[in-house]
């Protein structure tokens, strides 16, 4: 009888220990699951309550939509979103991040995101209304060149909006200063010229860049092909405005200016050069009064009588391209 009681007591003890072990494991598993939930919650912008987790498990829809708005507004999520899917709350987050950090790589990443989103007209307006133009333009004062380049790229897209140009005009002097002071043919110089090209599409701000015409001509003869093309886009825009024709005609021509009209020059450059000259010729006919020009001026080099430029035009009449011939005809006939 005693042996039987001892056996029953041992069995009860074993069952009790087993139950206790299961309980401890369940408690450990519960604690571990809760810890993992917290980790996931932090990564996605918030922690779900037990009730929320149950609803999410059952429906899989309603809670997911609610949480997506929270998670999508986190900087890490916003910066990886497709540019065409960025909404106002996302742009606010990106602009806040750009304004609130001095870390170069983060600033560059936010500027890339803004630049991509600013390719869409709706976002160009949204960024302006959110005060983003000044936030982006302030990056032009950053000490890191790559940040300046990316800020210029954003401004390039933003400046396609006429409404944005009105606010960006206060930054034209700084952009001109950067273009002149930076290394010749640098990425920053090209980016700055692109912004000025957009801003010079209308006549509204031509008076703000006329003092930089001599430097534009310097870049035209010294720069790479990409620099030449960007400078000529600006000069063509300026030359279409009779109001600044006098400024263009009076400026001193670089010594190697006429060499650009050689038939071996790249067509894109040659064609824009001829459009520039043809526009000036038309504006010259509109100018009233007698004006004396220096011998080294653009006017004297192009329209003096006789000039080496006349011989260049005669040669270009044989150029194997109808667009080039048409612009040569414009110059000769006018």
From TrEMBL:
Armadillo repeat-containing domain ranges (all copies): 86-287
Annotated membrane topology: Single-pass membrane protein
Keyword hit for Mitochondrion: yes
UniProt keyword terms in alphabetical order: Membrane, Mitochondrion, Transmembrane, Transmembrane helix
InterPro entries associated with the record: ARM-like, ARM-rpt_dom, ARM-type_fold, Armcx_regulator
GO CC annotation, single: mitochondrial outer membrane
Gene3D superfamilies attached to this UniProt entry: Leucine-rich Repeat Variant
Residues annotated as transmembrane: 9-28
Subcellular location: Mitochondrion outer membrane
Primary site of residence: mitochondrion
A Pfam family of this chain: Arm_2
Domain of life from the UniProt record: Eukaryota
Listed name of the protein: Armadillo repeat-containing domain-containing protein
